[in-house]
Amino acid sequence: MTECYAYLSRAVPDLDLRELSKIIVNSRGFNATYNITGVLLFDGAMFYQYIEGPSEPLADARQRIDASRNHTDIQVLLDGTPAKPGAFPTWSLGYLMLDEPAHSLHAFVMPADRVDHVDHPALVAAFAALAAKSDAM
Questions:
Q1: Which of 9, 67, 82, 88 might form a disulfide with 71, Cβ 3.0–4.6 angstroms?
Q2: What is the C-alpha separation between 52 and 55, in angstroms, rounded?
Q3: Element (H, E) at 137
Q4: What DSSP element (H or E) covers 16?
Q5: What is the biggest distance separating any 2 CA atoms in the chain, rounded to whole angstroms?
Q6: With contact defined as beta carbons under 8 Å apart, do 49 and 123 qualify?
Q7: What is the model's pLDDT at position 50?
Q8: Pairing assessment for the beta strands 135-136 and 46-54 based on DSSP bridges
Q9: Are strands 2-11 and 37-42 parallel, antiparallel or unpaired?
Q10: What is d(CA 78, CA 49) in angstroms, rounded to the nearest whole number?
Q11: pLDDT tens digits, the chain, 137 residues: what are they?
Q12: In the sheet where 37-42 sits, what is the strand order?
């Protein structure tokens, strides 16, 4: 079964961009191996990520995300089954640098007990709109 996970988090103040590059390369390898796709947006202060894939590998990816010391204050936007799988099918992990904060994604922040009520198509559309006007890497 395909699952999805989306969150926003605050980058640590002393984030090493070379370390971030290594994490992205490693994540792309892991994701490609386990059929996980998605996008990571970064505005210099906040991370915004949407990923989807098979349940068990996605749970592993989520544990890696949760354990990362490169960010804090993780706010889950979505955790469950996507309404329509395949949001970013060509990206094992698209990394996009934003010119400004992704205010449109903050609208999806929900209390932890309500993450299953997020409008999945609208969330994916917000990620896609931001990705379309960003510098792809």
A1: 9
A2: 9
A3: none
A4: none
A5: 38
A6: no
A7: 95
A8: unpaired
A9: unpaired
A10: 10
A11: 899 999 999 999 999 889 889 989 999 999 999 999 999 999 999 999 999 999 999 999 999 999 999 999 999 888 889 988 999 998 888 888 888 888 778 777 755 555 556 788 888 888 888 888 765 55
A12: 71-80, 2-11, 46-54, 37-42, 94-97, 135-136
Residue 35: which residues within 8 A CB-CB, separation 6 or more? 53, 54, 57
Residue type at 84 in one-letter notation: K
**Full-model pTM:** 0.88
Which residue, chain included where needed, has tokens 């068990």?
Answer: 56
Contact between 99 and 28 (Cβ < 8 Å): no
Q: Give residue 65's pLDDT.
A: 94
> Three-state SS for 52?
strand
Residue 110 pairs in a beta bridge with none
Check if the beta carbon of residue 85 is closer than 8 Å to that of residue 49.
no
